[in-house]
Structure formats: C-alpha cells, structure tokens
Design brief:
- InterPro entries: G-protein_gamma, G-protein_gamma-like_dom, GGL_sf.
- Keywords: Cell membrane, Lipoprotein, Membrane, Methylation, Prenylation, Transducer.
- One of its GO terms (cellular component) is heterotrimeric G-protein complex.
- It holds the Pfam family G-gamma.
- With about 70 residues, this protein is mainly alpha-helical.
- It has one domain: G Protein Gi Gamma 2.
- It contains three helices and no strands.
- The longest helix has 21 residues.
- The model has no long low-confidence stretch (mean pLDDT about 85).
Length: about 70
C-alpha cells in the first residue's frame, strides 16, 4: 500500500509540473529573434567586445605586469 501511495504522490507532482509548464506563455521563434536583435542593437555601445575598452586600466583581462626576481 505504501508503494502505491508513493507512486500516486509522484504522479501528482508530475501532473502539477506539467500544468505549470502548460501555463507558460509561448512565443514564436521569429518573435524571440526579433526581440533579441533589438536588444543587441540597443546595447551594442555598452559591449566591450565590440567597442573595446577606453583604457588598459579599465580592462579586467589585461596582462598583469610581470614579476621580477631580485
């Protein structure tokens, strides 16, 4: 009886998850692509991979100064 109860509880959890997933608002791929392209073009001035850094001091990926042995 305990196994049957456990199985029933698992099935209820699965059903609830499927209901939550079914309630999610869907978008077509073309809508999503258009929104992504709009976001990218609006924020391209803030993208350091496209514009570069204003100075090397601002760049967190710059090569660190080499260590000298005394």
């Amino acid at each position: 009886m305990d196994v049957m109860s456990s199985s029933l509880q698992q099935q209820r959890v699965v059903v609830e998850q499927l209901r939550r997933e079914a309630a999610i608002e869907r978008q077509t791929v073309s809508e999503s692509c258009a929104k992504m392209m709009k976001y990218i073009t609006e924020h391209e001035q803030e993208d350091y991979l496209l514009t570069g850094f204003t100075s090397q001091k601002v760049n967190p990926f710059r090569e660190k100064s080499s260590c000298t042995v005394l």
